[in-house]
Amino acid sequence: MLAGILQLALLAGCTTTKPGALLKRQGDEIIVAGQLFHTGTRVVTWMDPNGYDAYRSERRFAPFDQSSWETSKVAVAALKTPNRYGLRKDGLTDAQVERVRGGGWDLPLLREKVDQFVLHFDASGTSRQCFKILHDHRCLSVHFMLDLDGTIYQTLDLKERAWHATTSNTRSIGIEIANIGAFSPGQQRMFEDWYQRDDSGWPRVVVPTRFGESGILTPNFVARPARKEPVLGPVQGRQLQQYDFTPEQYAALVKLTATLCKVFPNLRCDFPRGADGKLITGKLPDEELSRYQGVLGHYHIQTNKVDPGPAFQWEHVIGGAKKLLR
């Protein structure tokens, strides 16, 4: 009798989800080839309120009546194309290019092609300012931005080839972590603009008023580096100083790193190490870079880059991500 009722219901087109029903996201998902994957930390996508959309051709922060591509390409010489991203076409057959050129990536194919996660400091101080520089002024893009309060912004589906790390663009995912950057001792005047000490003696980030709104989503958030004093260390054979990233940024990055290493099997949860097992602090030789699969810094790819800088806690991030994966 029950079987007969179920059969009639199916024939009548009865479904468990009603047309027009709202499917809510939890707010921690990243988007990979159109599919959602939970991270366990706050993610704002390009489709969400307060998001940053790298698919748009107009300048995000120009006055609206001056933001169109036709106006922007004249106003900003660096803007050579309305698209600040491209197709991950290296290594694809002609048939695969035809299949994915319109956006039709399937997850198994994307998993074959992505095997690096590149870490940057944004040198802009906040994710809002970072997107303004990349999108409105430099014709560049990045998949993720990580703000001072630990909010992750996704600007593109990970199927896209973002423009952030030259030779590694086709095979990599990139993230810009909000941090003003690293400087040679005696040349870190930027620290005076961005860091102030309060009664606790611990520095806090103060976004200079010339940048306007900070864009930080957490109300009344006070950003403090994870370590009290600037960290001095070698990058590309130079000694540099840098204030550490915030604990909130580290907590979010650990979860995102674990998620990406889970989603992409060819992305090893580790960083470049020398024969002694310690972090390599300069560019990898070209042949070694071509073979490398895992998490790495921008300075591992280009000799003229020093991000994510000497303060970045590689062991903390990778160790935390491995623990989550276990």
Question: Explain this structure to me?
Answer:
The protein is α/β, with parallel strands linked by helices and 326 residues long. It is 25% helix and 17% strand. It contains nine helices and 14 strands. The strands form five sheets. A six-stranded mixed β-sheet has the order 3-7-6-9-5-14, with helices on both faces. The longest helix has 17 residues, at 247-263. The chain is globular, with a radius of gyration of 22 Å. 38% of the residues are buried.
Summarize the structure.
By secondary structure, this protein is α/β, with parallel strands linked by helices.
In terms of DSSP E residues, the strand content is 15-25%
Number of strands: 14
Order of helices and strands: HEEEHEHHEHEEEEHEEEEHHEH
Spans of at least 5 consecutive residues with low confidence: none
Helices and strands, with pairings:
Elements: H1 2-11, E1 29-32, E2 35-38, E3 43-45, H2 69-75, E4 85-87, H3 94-100, H4 107-113, E5 116-121, H5 127-138, E6 144-146, E7 152-154, E8 160-162, E9 172-177, H6 190-194, E10 195-197, E11 203-205, E12 231-235, E13 238-242, H7 247-263, H8 286-291, E14 294-297, H9 314-325
Parallel strand pairs: 3-7, 5-9, 5-14, 6-9
Antiparallel strand pairs: 1-2, 4-8, 6-7, 10-11, 12-13
Helix pairs in contact: 7-9
